[in-house]
Amino acid sequence: MLFDKDYFACNEQNITIEPRNPQPVYPEHTHNFNEIVIVTGGHGKHILNGHLFDLYPGMMFYIHASDCHLYENVDNLHLTNILFRDPDRFNFINGISDLIPQQDPFQAHYFFDKKCDHNIQTILTELNHSDTGSTAYQESLFLQLLILFKQNQYVETGTGTNDNRVRQLLRWVQVHFKEDIDWSHVTQQFSLSLRSFHRHVKSEIGISPQKYLIKLRLADAYSQLIYTGKSVTTIAQECGFNDSAYFATCFKQEFNLTPQTLRNNPDKRYH
Which of 46, 60, 263, 264 is 20 to 30 Å apart from 155, CA to CA? Predict the structure, then answer.
């Protein structure tokens, strides 16, 4: 377990910034404080309470004090960790628990807009340069961050610049990844051309939209193979794969083991 006394300057401090440049592979652990993590570069896998998520630049996620998590398969992964104590300890703001997703890992990982990214970096710079004794100022900045993150969680249609609409659509896919997705239709829904969307996604996260979709499906299948008794075929179908053989091929390419091997040997999971 990681303890707050090793990261916070004093007992009165409720918020601190801890960069990881880069973040190494780190085994499963818990801590007695909460975190908001921003991915600023590179790639990796994050396993939160047994659920697997691929990390890309421009993504953020929440970690509660009671969560177990680890990092694996990191590739020049750079993170900015915003550490904060229990919201009940805050002195000048209250009710912020409503701005923080509860312990549903699928609500806790998402992309944020480019404009939001600029505003986040401005606030983080101010937090970094604020005096540890400036409790009211630090808490007001933290509240601004929570509101920004809340505003960027999920939309059904695109608004803003092309870059913003691309990230909004990626968030939409995170929610609808088990469904049959018609890229032509959904890009129109977010006021994007199909070609422009493909180009932006490839530039942003280094893979095609279809590959991103497949990785989301495989990550969910990975967790189900470990934590449910469903058959491999049922899991494949529920995760959006109509062909079990194709599912097994994709799974082997992603995790270097077959679905059946993971099912029969859960000790081979990331831990």
Answer: 46
* CATH 1.10.10.60 describes domain 211-268: yes
Provide the residue-wise pLDDT of the chain in tens; the chain has 271 residues: 999 999 998 888 999 999 999 999 999 999 999 999 999 999 999 999 999 999 999 999 999 999 999 999 999 999 999 999 998 899 898 888 888 877 676 667 889 887 788 899 999 999 988 876 688 999 999 999 999 888 877 778 888 889 889 999 999 999 999 999 999 999 999 999 999 999 999 999 999 999 999 999 999 999 999 999 999 999 999 999 999 999 999 999 999 999 999 999 888 888 6
pTM (predicted TM-score):
0.89
Three-state SS sequence of the chain: CECHHHCCCCCCCCEEEEEECCCCCEEEECECCEEEEEEEEEEEEEEECCEEEEECCCEEEEECCCCCEEEEEEEEEEEEEEEECCHHHCCCCCCHHHHCCCCCHHHHEEECCHHHHHHHHHHHHHHHHCCCCCHHHHHHHHHHHHHHHHHCCCCCCCCCCHHHHHHHHHHHHHHHCCCCCCHHHHHHHCCCCHHHHHHHHHHHHCCCHHHHHHHHHHHHHHHHHHHCCCCHHHHHHHCCCCCHHHHHHHHHHHHCCCHHHHHHCHHHCCC
4-151 CATH choice from 3.40.50.1240, 2.60.120.280, 3.40.50.1970, 3.40.50.300: 2.60.120.280
